[in-house]
Each structure stands twice: as structure tokens, then as C-alpha cells.
Specification:
By secondary structure, the protein is of the alpha+beta class. It has 8 helices and 9 strands.
Amino acid sequence: MFWQGVLAAGLRRTIESWIMGGPPGEVAPPASGTPAPARNGFKTWIVVAGFMVVAAATFALVRWAETGEQPKLSVAKQWNEAIQKLGFEPVYPPIEDIQVGDVFAMISDDAVSDSATDEPFAGRSIKLLHLDMTSEIEDAYRAVYQFPATNARPDHDGQVWPQTVATDSLFKPPATRTTLPLVLFPRFTITNVKRASGSASAMSQLLSGGFGADASSTETVEVRFSATETYGVPAVPAELRLLDFCEDDATKGFCTQQGLRKQLSILIGKRIDDKVKDRKTGVERPRFSVELALVSRVFLARSIQTSMGEDGGTRGNVGVNQQAVLPAAAAQAAPVAAGASGDGKPQSPAPTPQAGPNGALGGAIAFERRATSNVLLPDTLLPRPVVVGFKSVRLRPVE
């Protein structure tokens, strides 16, 4: 970071000036060569060292919190993390053409990083084919009751909300379902905040200095789905179809590690065969875990509104002073004796640096930096529903 480099350079120059002028706590010897007594030099160096240790710890703390200082907003990552909290596999970007019965080869885990979860679904899966599960879907919904539509909201609070009277038994499944089952998702906001601050100071007869800094970052994701619907089949019919798929001579090759990795190599190339060494056992294993997935339920939305933002910043200040502790005789900076220049005239005293209000020599630096990034998908009514997520039954072949 720029300000960290400036601060480090300033501290380095200050320490170098102390070294060039003798250890802190020891006064430079007079011109006559008579050494002046040392004043707590050892203690002063301990104070300086402690100041530097605390300042370094403060730097580390601030660095941890300043992840939002230069936002690197990943819309796919933010979307995935938000939608996963709803309890199903997120689809980014939301698309129309994912259905119950789709079979995917998927990268489910990456031993090196979190890229498997950060990547959008399209970036870590490949659709192999679609199994027609229309009969299983129809059978499933023949056993599901469909209740009458809701009446209009009463005009005034306190009025009874009347129910619609069914023309037939409420608990008689319809022969044919003509509308999708409803599902409701709450409008939710996820906020992650990191904040840290710290300071360090040191004071002695020779040194008076201080450093303070604070940093913060905030990530916010707000999601709202409207007009949401769903459909799917129970787990058992889906599992039976997946087992049939893996026993069929034409498709069973996709249900092996080799078959899945061959398909996924189309997606990420030779990396799919990378190996990593287990830190505990030292045994090599595949870097990527792969699975076969059969989509058993999809979640659809006809309107989506999303906003994502990051805001972060860092600010701080540093000041370092060197106290004037020369002996009284030397501190008076008396004129040089007559004739010192060889012309017999008294010489003016050498100019001295200006001192601060507390009589100390030094300086201060203040710094501040902020950065913001935002992404907004306004409320949009879609002509047809799109899939925002799904559930599936999965098979992980033996390594």
C-alpha cells in the first residue's frame, strides 16, 4: 500500500537519524571530545522496539479489515453466497432452460481454493443430457391437493377474510394440474462488516511518537424474488432414474470418475486431472471432486430485484518527535568564540530546526482512502419464469 510505504520510509529515516547521531539516550560528545554521560539509552531502545512491535501488529489488524479498500466485486460469488442461504443450488445467471430431469457433470469441490463455490454454476458444470421425467412429474402432482384461489383482501382491517368454497372435495387431487405450485422467498439482505483500529505510542526522554490507524469494509447483498413458483419430483423416483441411467450400457460410462473427468475437461482442460498431497497423510489425491447430478426440483421467478455493493476505506496518522535533551550548556547554542573563523569576528549560531508546540522536533502524516463498488438489477417483470436455483440427487463415483 502507498501509505504503508510512506510510513515505513518515514520511520526508517527517523531511526537512521537516531543511529547517525548516537543511540537514543546518549548525548553527542562536545567539540572538545569530552564524552557526555548516557541517559537511559538501554531503556529508550526497549521503548522504541516496543513501539515498532505494536505498530506492526496494528498494521496487520488494519490489513485484515481493509479488504474492501479496493473492492473486487464478484457478482457471481455474491449471488451464490446469498442464494445458498435459501437452501438450494444457485444458478447464475438465472436462465430458463434448466428442467427437472437434466443430468449434469459437476465440480463439487476444489482442494486448493474455494473456486468451486465461488464460480457460477455454468462455470463448474456441464449438461450431459436430459431425461424425460414427465410421467414421474405428473404422477407426483396427481397426489398433491390444489386448494381454491385466495379471495381479494378485505377493504378494512378487522373484516373477515372470506374463503373460496370449493365445488368438490378439498382433499381430492385434480386429474390434471394447470398451474405451477407456489413458493415464497423472503426479501433478505446480507451484510458482512469488518472493522479494526489500533494505535501505538512511545515516550521517553529522547523519543515521543505515536501511530494510529483504522480500516473497515462492508459488503451488502439484497435480493428479492417476486411471483415465484416451483415444481419437482420426490427423491426416490429421481434416484431410481439416476440408477437406471448408470446401469444403461449407453450411458453408464458417465457414472465413473474417468467418464466425468473426461466431460469436465471440456470445461477446464487438463487441470481436471491435477493432484494434491494430503497434509496429514502425504498421500496424493485428485484436486477436484466430481459428481453426477440429476435435477429433481427447480425454483422459478418471474421478477428479480438485486443490489450488491462494497464499500471500504482506511485512514490514520503518524507522528514522531525527537526531544531536545542536550545539556543546558550545549542547548544554549552560544555564539562561537571570537576568532573561530580566523577573522576575529564572532560567528552567529547555526540555525536550528523548528520545534513543535511541546518543544519537540518531528513531523506527522495523515492519510485516508476510500473505494466503493455497486451493482444493481432493478425490479424487472420477465415474460416467462427463469430458474434461480434447483435441488438434485447426486452420485459420486468411487475414486
